[in-house]
From TrEMBL:
<feature type="signal peptide">
    <location>
        <begin position="1"/>
        <end position="26"/>
    </location>
</feature>
<keyword id="KW-0732">Signal</keyword>
<protein>
    <recommendedName>
        <fullName>Secretion system C-terminal sorting domain-containing protein</fullName>
    </recommendedName>
</protein>
<dbReference type="InterPro" id="IPR013783">
    <property type="entry name" value="Ig-like_fold"/>
</dbReference>
Length: 436
């Protein structure tokens, strides 16, 4: 199945791993998870008046707490952060995990000890788990069975200039959903560091994008909403699962004859892809500069090929690194992998070329070869370094064409000292030009 989504809503979420949500359409089996602490609850409690409970757990974070009994609505609230390895909510139990005070700390941290020694959250058929305050889940398998429901909706919507306390962190979390399982995302700021979130679901979700006008309230696939704000949050989460482009390849090739680097890349699919910005770094990947831009296809279900040629290579050569900054129509961006090319340094020459008249009054300017032994017909490229505008690439590749361009530029920029840079093969020569 394919996920039909579009990133048409600005993201609220902050995250350190770009596109760290993935949705896989497959039926999965929930992991085995057994409670170390079991609480049998008596019937009682309503949504407006839940029955309060408290559980004493191990300080080392190893407790897996199971709730059964009921039916009813219950709330486990705490004054300080509680760390667990797991929570199991059995059928008939509607459990809220929250906090009593007004602090900025997590109410609950549910985490495994490692990516292989994982924690668990199990919501059985006809059970509900509501995480109602700042919560962190790390190295955890979440399983929502049957008609179970999991809710991420903070009680705190913010007051005055204070932001709401509604951060939900998923790091190395796998969320497994049955066909009838339900997810509700309300007042939630989703943080996806590190290994992020993987959602396994056997049903398709069609709610986000210009072609869909979902009902309010409504539902699609595993997701339900009661108002437009909740629908917006769901779309933001789902949008993270859609890579703006799927790359087939990204390659760099050094062209010795032209002394240029050719970049070639192709996409398999594109969603709302505005353009690619080409960035370059020299002899390291700490300092990047934009050197060009290529328009994207926008939307495409077919392979699209792109290319860009970097003709302004540094004279000193070295290891040249390139990456693509892919930008969506809404301004969101993501980086490609990094590729590189080894570029030889230029040999600086003197006396191979001469220019005349020099100084020039702007009426005439020519370039002449003085030393034919050191020029074997290689392609010429040239730059004019101007007093105010800096380096200006020249489009000509013959001495006549380059001379005409130089004459035009010095007449525009006026009197002063210019540097004409001529390159061919692996050689470069700088010639001082005076405009009177």
């Amino acid at each position: 199945m394919s996920l039909k989504l579009a990133k048409s809503i600005a993201w609220l979420f902050y995250f350190s791993a770009i596109f760290s949500t993935h949705i896989i359409f497959a039926q999965t089996n929930c992991p085995t998870c057994s409670p170390t602490i079991s609480r049998s609850l008596t019937a009682g409690g309503t949504i407006n008046n839940p029955s309060g409970i408290n559980v004493n757990v191990n300080d080392d974070g190893s407790s897996i707490v199971g709730f059964s009994g009921g039916p009813g609505v219950y709330a486990w609230t705490t004054n300080a952060t509680v760390t667990l390895k797991g929570v199991i909510v059995n059928s008939g139990v509607n459990m809220t995990l929250g906090i009593r005070n007004d602090g900025n700390r997590e109410a609950f941290i549910i985490r495994g000890f490692s990516p292989t020694d994982r924690g668990c959250i199990i919501v059985r058929d006809n059970a509900v788990l509501d995480l109602a305050w700042i919560s962190t889940m790390e190295n955890v398998d979440i399983c929502v069975e049957g008609n179970g429901k999991i809710v991420f909706d903070s009680d705190d919507t913010g007051a005055g200039n204070r932001p709401p306390r509604n951060t939900y962190t998923f790091d190395g979390v796998v969320l497994n959903l049955s066909p009838e399982a339900e997810i509700q995302i309300g007042n939630a700021n989703i943080n996806l560091p590190g290994a992020g979130l993987v959602i396994n679901t056997p049903v398709e979700t069609e709610i986000c994008g210009p072609d869909f006008t979902p009902a309010i309230p409504g539902g699609s696939g595993n997701f339900t909403w009661t108002n437009r704000a909740q629908l917006s949050e769901i779309c933001k989460l789902l949008s993270l699962s859609i890579l703006p482009v799927e790359y087939l390849y990204f390659k760099s090739t050094f062209l010795a004859q032209e002394r240029a680097v050719r970049l070639n890349w192709a996409t398999a699919k594109e969603w709302e892809n505005s353009h690619f910005e080409i960035e370059r770094a020299v002899n390291g990947v700490r300092s990047w500069e934009k050197i060009g831009e290529v328009k994207g296809a926008g939307w495409s279900e077919m392979p699209v090929e792109y290319f860009f040629t970097d003709e302004q290579l540094p004279l000193t050569g070295g290891n040249i690194f390139y990456r693509l900054r892919q930008v969506d129509f809404n301004g969101d961006f993501a980086y490609s992998e990094v590729v590189s090319a080894r570029v030889p340094s230029m040999q600086f020459t003197q006396g191979v070329w001469r220019v005349f008249p020099n100084p020039t009054n702007g009426n005439a300017f020519r370039i002449e070869l003085l030393d034919p032994k050191r020029y074997n017909g290689e392609t010429l490229t040239a730059n004019l370094i101007t007093p105010l505008a800096g380096k200006k690439p020249l489009g000509g590749n013959t001495t006549q064409a380059i001379g005409e361009e130089v004459l035009g530029l010095v007449n525009v920029h006026g009197k002063g000292v210019y540097i004409l840079e001529i390159t061919w093969g692996n050689r470069v020569e700088h010639i001082k030009v005076l405009k009177q």
